[in-house]
Fold this sequence. Notes:
Layout: E1 3-5, H1 15-31, E2 36-38, H2 52-55, E3 57-58, H3 65-74, E4 77-86, E5 89-97, E6 103-107
Helix pairs in contact: 1-3
Amino acid sequence: MILAAAQTKPKRGDISSNLLNHYHLIELAAQNGANLIAFPELSITGYERENAEALVFTEDDYRIDHLKELSVRNNIVIIAGAPIRIDSKLFIGEFIIAPDDSVSIYTKQFLHEGEGDFFDS
């Protein structure tokens, strides 16, 4: 298995631009034979603790649809981060998108100092 680690510099709160950057890096990783690409936490929104409520994603958020398409088309697992609301809780989360069109969610379990003011664990 070939793994790709993507280091991005998200534009604060600019989800559309950040997703375009993800698309480009996913295609690049796939072209180089990667089977999995991992992005940092909150890569889709940037590290926006104070604005997480305004930038929140849901478990079945339509904004990850193109990531799902890229996963299937390129046969690559994509791990991309965003604040995710599950029930009434807000988490630092990662979407784990598989080439079979399935999506799992990982939520950060051990928050750093100050993160607990904005996120659940």
